[in-house]
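Protocol step 4 of 5: obtain the predicted structure for the target chain.
Materials: sequence only (see below). No template structures provided, no constraints applied. The aim of this step is simply to have a reference model before the mutagenesis design in step 5. Sequence pasted as it appears in the construct record:
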Amino acid sequence: MSDVFISYAGEDRGRAARLADALGKLGWSVWWDRRIIAGQTFDQAIERELESAKCVVVLWSKHSIGSEWVKNEAAAAAERNVLVPAAIDGSKLPLEFRRRQAADLIDWNGQPSHTGFQALCEGVANAIGASLPRHAALPEAKPVRCRRWIGAIALIAVAIALVLYLIRPWQVPAPPGADPGLADLVSGAYYGNVISDSRGGSRSDVGVTVTRLDRSNVRVSSDYQRVGTVDLALTRVGNKVLNADGDSPFMVDLERSPPTLSFNPRNELAYSGTRRK
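Step 4 output (structure tokens):
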């Protein structure tokens, strides 16, 4: 019995291999069809593993949405309530599976810190009924061979930070009345698509507006009725601005140019858009 069974189309074998490796590094046992032992009957091996796996991750793509194999495996997993879907391109999911929120792995390249991969891991842990592994597969820091460089690097870093702290208020003065905050970083008009909806299908060309309420609070609204209007308190993790609480997951990725927005109002639909310049 494996922890995770990966269902995918043959054209996406490379993506499946990358995911299998990443999940394996987290300590989960992973099965995909490359593990079929010589002499085993292909259909029987897949069926046995599919029925016994604690969790089934389905990689949805333009190839897999047309695969009867993948759709049958997804249906079997949904029937056992162990289905964890993941989108690896922008294709519209088959109608019968759009009610389930899919993890966004469209731009995932194997990074363990990727938001979509973290969401997938949470889904796997929830399906398995276990806590998320503590030993996340983050790259381990390599030991510094020469200890004398540690002190020098630390001193340089402290000196640079001190200089920036002292000169920044003078070189970059804030304009009168300015009140910069997280809300200023994410405010603007976004344009994109509703990828999936618990009450219907996907929808293209949807505009979402993020309006500043104060330094750390925004109002998210749209002319598309299903998105509606939601007020959010914000927090920041690295270069990503997230909602601090509530039932409407919100994330603006500031590493992108222009920034991208992932929004799930009231956990009912998945929206993805890009801020207009």
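Step 4 remarks: DSSP finds six helices and 13 strands in the chain. The longest strand covers residues 203-214.
Proceed to step 5.
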